[in-house]
Structure formats: C-alpha cells, structure tokens
Write a structure and sequence with these properties.
The structure holds two protein chains of two kinds.
Chain A lengths: L5 E8 L6 H4 L11 H4 L9 H6 L5 E4 L11 H8 L4 E4 L4 H9 L4 E3 L1 H6 L5 E5 L4 E4 L2 E4 L5 H9 L2 H10 L1
Parallel strand pairs in A: 1-2, 2-3, 3-4
Antiparallel strand pairs in A: 1-5, 5-6, 6-7
Helix pairs in contact in A: 7-8
Chain B lengths: L7 H10 L9 E4 L3 E4 L3 H8 L13 E4 L9 H17 L3 E3 L6 H7 L8 E4 L13 E4 L2 H10 L2 E4 L3 E7 L8 H12 L8 E5 L8 H10 L7 E4 L3 H19 L9 H14 L9 E8 L6 E3 L7 E3 L10 E5 H4 L2 H11 L9 E5 L3 H9 L2 H7 L2 E3 L20 E4 L15 E4 L2 H10 L5 H6 L1
Parallel strand pairs in B: 2-3, 2-5, 3-4, 5-6, 8-9, 8-11, 9-10, 14-15, 14-17, 15-16, 17-18
Antiparallel strand pairs in B: 1-7, 12-13
Helix pairs in contact in B: 2-3, 2-5, 6-7, 8-9, 11-13, 11-14
Classes of the chains: A alpha/beta, B alpha/beta.
Bound molecules: iron/sulfur cluster.
Chain lengths: 167, 449
C-alpha cells in the first residue's frame, strides 16, 4: 500500500495542548487492541461527538503541542481506525508525531494554517507541494524529511523495517 | 583543526550509532543499550509478529516489568500479563520483573541495567528519567519498539539541546519537584519540545540521586526528547555497588557474600570512563538560569503542568484524595518526608491518603525503618508497588468532580480515569501536609501547629 500524498477532507478543529489522555484514555490501553475496539474511544474525553460524526478522509486541525503526554500509539491509531486523513497542527509532541507518520497518518506542522482554518472547513493537504489549502488561503510547510517520506512511501514503519531487513 | 564543541546529545547518539561525530538534525540508526517495555509488551509482540521471526534480535538488551496495572484489576488485564509472561519465557528474556517489583524507571535504575553515556529507548514517555545518571533516554511508540526488537536499532534525529542552569540553595520545604514545576511553569509545557534538556549548574551536585531522578523525570512534561544531568562520583558509586551485587547474584546462583570495596571501586572507575559530558561552548538553542533560593513552594493546577502557582497564592482547595507515589516521587526520600509530616498526626476526616511506593525495594526500606507502620497509624493506605492510579487504570482512581493532590508528573484532564476530576501536582511534602489539613497546604503550617 502506498499512502496518498494529496488529502482532502472536512475539518474537526481543536485547541492547544490536547493530551493523549483525552485522545485515547489510559484506562483502555492494555485491554483494547483491534482497530474496531479502539475506534469508538477516539477523543472520548475531549469531544464525544467526534467518534459518532467522523467520516473517512476527515482532517483534524489543532493548536500547539497536539498529542502531548503518553507514548501510547493508539492516540494516532485511533484516528487511523476512524479513517482520519491527516492532522494539521501548530506543533506536535515528538512521540505523537513519530507514531502518526509510522502509521501513515500525515502529521503536518503548519502554525499559519492551523490558526486560519475554521471548524467545518473543507481543506486539502498536499504533501508533494508542501501546501495546506483552506478557504482562508494557501499555507506552505517545510518539506518532509527524507526519513519520513521513505516510511510513508513504504506503507508505514513496519513494512519499511521489513524491507530493510530483507536487504 | 580542533573538533567543534558538542552537546551531550550529539556525543551520546554518535556513540549509539557507532559514528565518530554527528550534527544536530542528522538522522542516525541508533542501537539502544536497553529497550524498555512494560504492560504494553504483549501489544508490542502482536506488532513484532509481523516480522515473521521466531526470536527477537536482542533478548539480552530487553528489560520488561509489569507495573502499570498491577495486581491485575480485571481478567483482561490478567490475560495481558499472562501473555507478557509467556513471551518472556519463550524468548529467554532475563531482565523481567514481576508484578509488585515496581515501576520500570525505578526498577531498572535500582538494578543498574543502564550506564552513564548509554542509550535507552522505552515504549514509555518518561524514559528521559534515565537522564538522572547521564544516560540518553527517549520514549518511543509500540511499532518502534517492535522494530527495535526485530532489528536492534531505530532511526533517531539528533535533537537540539536546551541548557538549564540551577544555582543556589532552595528554601525550606522547596524540593526538586518544586524546582521542576517552577521551571516548566516558566518555560511552558512545550518549552523543551523535541529538545535534549541538559541540566547543569552548581546546585545539581547538591541534590540527592533520588531528587535528580525527579528532575530528569519531569522534563518529559516539557516535551523533552531526553534529559541529562552531569553524572558525578555519587552516581558512579551508587550504580557500581548495585551492578557488582547484581552480577554476582546472577553469576553464582544466589551468590551471597559482600562484594569487595576494590571491586566496587573498579566498577565505579569503569562507569566514570564511559560517562559523557558536553563540551564548553557546545551549541545550545538557549541557556536558562534559575536561582533555587528564589523558588517558592509550587503547585500545578488542573489540567496543565505549566498552570503553576505559588502555594501561598492558591487559596482554599479541599482535597478528596492525596496521592504519594509514581516514578516522579514514590521513592524513599519521598516517604521519609511524608513520615516526618504525618507521624503522630491524622489524615483529615473527609480526605484519604494513598501511598504507592515506586518499588518493592522502597517499600522494604520504609518497612525496615518503621515508617509504614506510623503512616498506616496516621490513616494512610498503601498500594502494591507500581504506577497505582497515575494513569487511571486502577487502585485509587477518582470519582466525578473529586480533587486529588498528587506527587505525580501529569494532571491532564481524565488522567486519573475521570475527566471531571481535578488533579493538582505538588511535592510529596505538600501532599502529606494536605492530607493532614484536608486542603492543599504548606508543610510549614502543619509542622508549626
Ligand atoms: S508512574 Fe505514572 S508516569 Fe510513571 S511510568 Fe507509571 S504511569 Fe507513567
């Protein structure tokens, strides 16, 4: 599977410092494992409407330090399990950032776009041209590092590592 | 031409990648000396199975403890533990610690599984904890840990470094925890985002090793990739003694007898030789200086760690639960100060005090000193060494709307299992005093009454 480089979707917008404890509560982390089990709990303690209303391709937009706190990977995979296409934020916690790309969920750092986008907007994230297009305008972000692009194009960290092991 | 000055992070990642030198921003394939996982081991195994291998690549470099939900609160948690035990047996992993031994960061420190200057990757966000000994510790995700098991390495970007200098002597009742909360309050909860936070200054050497652990541990709350304190003689000796004892125990079955002081001194010298220090003039993104003598008793209010306030400005806050424990402040010196404050006093009516030692060793030492007996007589109750209710799994989670004053590191909404509950973060001394008075209070107020 090769991940798409052009994502288009409807926006769910949140604020600064949204922690993994509200993205995917710690009390589920050792018992729920499959995508079907984790999907209904996405953003449970932040926005109960999210898991009910999210549609494949939707994009999460947030302020600073999205995903701070725990290393729990389900904070990223619970969004993937709901078909979220990308997360655009002013900044990310480093572990969420890695967990997201490792699961082919583009995590795009673009403070200008994050500030300009309104809830319910339909936006486009173009990973090749490094652009976020939204009703308020086009905003550019720095090019992906070669390491992230390799992982994305391999279909995620595990297939990427499998390929390297196979030599 | 002389080599340019380098940060600790540059030196540690160069060593872990087997390179002579690395630049900030460079991506390297780093080989961790230790790979930490805990109750999440069974879930990591599920991912690792996709590699189709029968054996993990690095069983001798893996360390696993059951600590996050112990003893198992539900049959599903028990099943998770059973899967971890089966995997550990199957793969011949010797650094495995059962339910009741304690929290990963504390136990692997006590067991001296890691050395100054080494790299530890952990599927736990508080892996920067190991900065207390001058090691590079970074948290990673489950898929990343599966890759480490399969290949023995992982890509890491060499981070920028932020230097924090601590000077002066803290006033009475102001601890390393207050200092950490104060620094995070000043720099913000993303003040160290993606950085190696390197703590220096003449005050560091005066902190006990346990207090250094609290400092390094808390830097994760500022977004740090790793943290670092310059290791000194006290670190080398502490680790050397423990390593020599452990190796003797593991080597000769049960091997008793005191290790010789010469053996310990040799080991300390070996550890010192492996330690890494930043060069003078190393490239920091910023240097921030703090005078500890000017730091007040500090509390973080709900629901952010940088929502800090001087205790004296807080006003009246009723406490339903006071909690002493976690990888931040569940050690012997934390129980000692709680004992000093609570001995001969009672936990207030309408308030409960939960104490969860960070490890079985801490519990044993507190028992031997008679503190547990006194604390229980004061009305405290004890949990099994481990994470306790820190992340909302079990053992003292909160009811809707309840208020907890906690010695932990996180007060995010929902952290202790219930989004409408409120968590205040403070030092163990403040938590103990608050238990006595039933409201968030200064230890000075209790001790003077
Ligand atoms: S005590 Fe809390 S912060 Fe520390 S490892 Fe356990 S859950 Fe994480």
């Amino acid at each position: 599977m090769t991940a798409a480089h052009l994502l288009r979707g409807r926006v769910w917008k949140y604020g600064d410092s949204v922690s993994t404890d509200v993205i995917f509560p710690g009390k589920y982390t050792y018992t729920l494992r499959t995508p079907e089990e984790i999907a209904p709990h996405a953003l449970e303690d932040l926005d109960p409407e999210f898991a009910r209303g999210v549609r494949p391709g939707d994009i999460v937009v947030a302020g600073r330090n999205w995903g701070c706190g725990s290393s729990r990977e389900q904070a990223a995979t619970c969004l993937v399990a709901n078909g979220v296409g990308a997360v655009v934020a002013a900044s990310f916690s480093r572990i969420f950032f890695r967990n997201a790309w490792n699961n082919c969920l583009p995590a795009v750092t673009c403070p200008a776009a994050a500030a300009a986008i309104e809830p319910g907007d339909v936006i486009e994230v173009d990973l090749d041209r490094c652009l976020v297009r939204c009703p308020a305008g086009d905003f550019s972000f720095p090019p992906l590092s070669p390491a992230l692009r390799e992982i994305l194009d391999a279909g995620g960290l595990i297939p990427w590592a499998q390929r390297r092991l196979a030599g | 031409m002389a080599a340019p000055p380098r940060t600790f992070a540059q030196k540690a990642l160069a060593r872990a990648a087997g390179l002579a030198a690395v630049e900030v921003g460079q991506v390297v394939d780093a080989r961790p000396d230790l790979a930490l996982s805990h109750d999440n081991t069974a879930a990591i195994r599920q991912i690792w199975l996709r590699f189709g291998r029968e054996r993990v690549a690095i069983p001798e470099r893996m360390a696993i403890t059951l600590d996050h939900a112990v003893p198992a609160p539900t049959p599903r948690h028990a099943q998770n533990h059973a899967e971890v035990r089966r995997f550990v047996a199957e793969q011949g992993i010797t650094h495995f610690y059962e339910v009741g031994r304690g929290i990963c960061h504390q136990v692997f420190s006590e067991e001296a599984l890691l050395e100054p200057g080494q790299l530890i990757l952990g599927s736990d966000s508080h892996t920067p904890h190991f900065g207390w000994m001058g090691a590079f510790g970074a948290g990673i995700g489950r898929s990343e840990m599966a890759v480490v098991w399969a290949t023995g390495e992982l890509w890491l970007r060499v981070p920028e470094s932020l230097r924090i200098e601590l000077q002066g002597t803290p006033p009475p009742w102001v601890s390393a925890k207050d200092a950490a909360l104060h620094v995070i309050g000043a720099l913000g909860e993303d003040g160290g985002l993606y950085a190696s936070v390197e703590i220096a200054g003449e005050a560091v050497a005066r902190f006990s090793l346990e207090s250094r652990m609290a400092l390094a541990n808390m830097m994760a709350e500022m977004g740090a990739k790793t943290s670092y304190l310059e290791p000194d003689e006290a670190v080398f000796r502490w680790l050397a003694e423990r390593r020599v004892r452990r190796v003797a125990r593991e080597g000769r079955s049960g091997g008793d007898g005191e290790p010789s002081t010469a053996a310990i001194a040799d080991e300390a010298a070996r550890l010192q030789a492996g330690a890494l220090y930043p060069d003078p003039g190393a490239p920091y993104t910023a240097t921030r200086r703090f005078d500890l003598s000017a730091i007040p008793i500090t509390v973080a209010r709900p629901h952010r760690v940088d929502h800090t306030i001087e205790l004296s400005d807080l006003g009246e806050v009723h406490v339903d639960q006071a909690f002493i424990g976690t990888c931040t402040n569940g050690r012997l010196e934390d129980l000692e100060i709680a004992h000093r404050i609570l001995k001969g006093r009672r936990v207030a009516a309408g308030t409960r005090l939960l104490i969860v030692p960070a490890s079985s060793e801490v519990l044993q030492m507190a028992l031997a000193r008679g503190w547990v007996e006194d604390l229980v007589a004061s009305g405290a109750h004890f949990g099994t060494p481990g994470c306790g209710p820190c992340m909302g799994n079990h053992q003292g989670v909160l009811a809707p709307g309840e208020v907890c004053v906690s010695s932990a590191n996180r007060n995010f909404r929902g952290r202790m299992g219930e989004p409408s509950a409120e968590i205040y973060l403070a030092s163990p001394a403040v938590v103990a005093a608050s238990a006595v008075l039933g409201r968030i209070a200064s230890p000075a107020e209790v001790m003077e009454s």
